[in-house]
Amino acid sequence: MDISQAIDQCPQAKLVFTTPSHQFPLGNTLSLSRRIALLEWASSNNMWIFEDDYNSEFRYHTKPIQALQGLDKHQRVIYAGTFSKMMYPGFRLGFLVVPPSLIDSFKVAKYYTDSHSGFLEQATLALFISQGHYARHVRRIRKACYERYLTLTNTIKKYLSHIFRIEPTDSGIHIVCWLQSGYTEEYIVKEGRKIGLAIQPLSRYCIQSYPKQGILLGYAAHHPSEIEKKYYFACSSFI
Hints:
It comes from Proteus mirabilis. The chain is α/β, with parallel strands linked by helices. 41% of the residues lie in helices and 15% in strands. The protein has helices spanning 3-9, 32-44, 68-71, 103-114, 119-130, 133-159, 185-194, 224-237, and strands spanning 15-18, 48-52, 77-82, 94-97, 164-166, 174-179, 200-201, 214-218.
């Protein structure tokens, strides 16, 4: 997020939605200086920031930057997180950390949208966290995903570097690959489907046409041996 550009384009903004830990789809992380600038803008403009802590658990090389909510001195940040990524999608439990002035409003909104979340799931999760199991689970999942990340990137560098250029990233559960000259998103997606690769074109997530051709490759749901095998076969498919 370019804070100065956002201020110029929307000087009277009252709400900013941001994913500072991991922007989708390119995977960028909002720097500390930009986080501070965003908080200063929110304070001076009487504006709210909705911070979606998307994929913050999946950081592999560096320490995470403190959340906007933790840096906020003026109570302008609404912080949201979910357990669905780390547990399983059907778990359907998330959480909000809201400024004191908004607690009553959010209680009313919660009541009228779905009354309450499942008590059994909440109690089980609370016990899972308090006994230290969740922290161990996060470390185990992060380690497994990092192994899959390394397998995917190393396999691409070994067999497909003439087609894909990997965008460096330090977090997340997918990578972005830029296509070398002569290849298009449409062609790579079509050929990938023939061998069982679920490849997403970057253009799907662009409001305007993007100057470069790129794709998204997920790896979290696949065993390293499966990743290596499929992308080895891709060598003969992507001619």
